[in-house]
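TA notes, week 10

Several of you asked for a full example with nothing omitted. So below is the full record: structure tokens for the whole chain, then the designed sequence directly under it. When grading your own attempts, check the secondary structure regions first.
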């Protein structure tokens, strides 16, 4: 009997040690799941309904508060699909489009050289712990394998191509800071933008929505900034970004906190706080995309350069050439947000379509389902060449507008 009790005691102790070690090792993941259990159930009723793009078109039509779409055939604009096109939507990493435009313009003007080099360590300064950190690592590895890295430095032209492929937030911040801040006002004026806000450093934006770092609730942070395009707000975001650039205790405290707690808010709070990120409308962005296609984005040289960077996907994924003779895109996946801009020429009709698609403030559980399958990318691409899906979307939108 004593042997049995000793065996059970040793067995239970071993089990506790093993499971305690597992829980301890993965405590951050367990804690994240526990804190977000309500959010992970949000919108799950749509998961089974959207196993096809037809189901996703039903979601689009039934959730106008979450979706904006503008899809325009360049040579047949009377067949354009517009849906919630005037509703302001968060740009997310689509703001990088304007960074690309800015550099194409400034390289042409001679302010920068496409061959000048950037030290990767200078880019990494802007990387926040656990905020799209994998994209920064993947950018570096991709550049290294492509032969773009030379003793820890990369050419500006290659860095800009990486920005399109990976939406590396640290890289975007480095590029943003490398431009005179007055240029952004000039670019907005040159492009005649009235609804679109210019890029801001992502490090500053994410630090600004961290309730623990800002010492106020996420809801208070959002309510505190009624105008996110004001000079005061833009200066505030730049100041927050600058906190991690300057060596010292402030940077160390922010980095140490984020290593343990990331932003310190829930998935739902993070999604809602994206309302402070720069915004646009589908209508104004699709006009920009049409100008890009027609080589009228500042001028033909700038337009061609930006299109060249955006064509990375059809060059890296030859299977796209089955459906497209030309294709360029920029996509983003951010908590509760999925969006994209693209241009494409159908291999079946020869027609070119320019598009903007926003899935904004998506229920968290449904967002995980959509983002894991890259559903917004497939949906957007098929709207260019798949007549059955185009007809289905138009049908759903017409039905729900009655």
């Amino acid at each position: 009997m004593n042997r049995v009790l000793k065996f059970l005691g040793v067995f239970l102790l071993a089990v506790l040690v093993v499971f305690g070690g597992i829980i301890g090792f993965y405590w951050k993941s367990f804690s994240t799941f526990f804190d977000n259990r309500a959010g992970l159930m949000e919108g799950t009723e749509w998961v089974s309904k959207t196993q096809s793009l037809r189901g996703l078109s039903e979601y689009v039509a039934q959730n106008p508060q979450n979706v904006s779409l503008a899809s325009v055939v360049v040579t047949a604009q009377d067949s354009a699909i517009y849906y919630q096109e005037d509703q302001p939507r968060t740009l997310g990493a689509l703001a990088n489009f304007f960074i690309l435009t800015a550099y194409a313009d400034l390289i042409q003007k001679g302010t920068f050289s496409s061959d000048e080099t950037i030290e990767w360590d200078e880019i990494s300064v802007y990387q926040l712990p656990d905020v799209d950190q994998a994209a920064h690592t993947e950018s570096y590895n991709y550049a290294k394998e492509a032969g773009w890295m030379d003793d820890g430095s990369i050419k500006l032209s290659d860095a800009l191509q990486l920005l399109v492929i990976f939406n590396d937030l640290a890289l975007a911040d480095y590029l943003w800071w490398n431009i005179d801040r007055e240029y952004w006002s000039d670019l907005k004026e040159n492009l005649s933008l009235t609804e679109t806000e210019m890029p801001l450093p992502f490090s500053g934006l994410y630090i600004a929505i961290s309730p623990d770092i800002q010492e106020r609730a996420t809801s208070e942070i959002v309510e505190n900034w009624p105008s996110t395009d004001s000079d005061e707000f833009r200066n505030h975001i730049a100041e927050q970004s600058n906190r991690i650039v300057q060596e010292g205790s402030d940077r160390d405290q922010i980095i140490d906190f984020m290593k343990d707690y990331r932003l310190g808010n829930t998935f739902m709070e993070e999604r809602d706080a994206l309302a402070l990120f720069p915004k646009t409308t589908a209508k104004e962005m699709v006009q920009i995309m049409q100008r890009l296609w027609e080589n009228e984005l500042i001028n033909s040289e700038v337009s061609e350069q930006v299109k060249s960077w955006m064509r990375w996907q059809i060059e890296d994924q030859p299977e796209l050439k089955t459906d497209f003779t030309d294709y360029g895109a920029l996509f983003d996946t951010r908590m509760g947000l999925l969006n994209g801009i693209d241009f494409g020429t159908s291999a079946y009709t020869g027609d070119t379509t320019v598009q903007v698609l926003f899935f904004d403030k998506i229920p968290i559980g449904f967002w995980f389902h959509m983002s894991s399958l890259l559903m917004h990318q497939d949906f957007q691409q098929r709207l260019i060449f798949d007549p059955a899906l185009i007809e289905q979307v138009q049908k759903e939108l017409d039905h729900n507008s009655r």
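DSSP finds 22 helices and ten strands in the chain. Use that as a sanity check on your answer.
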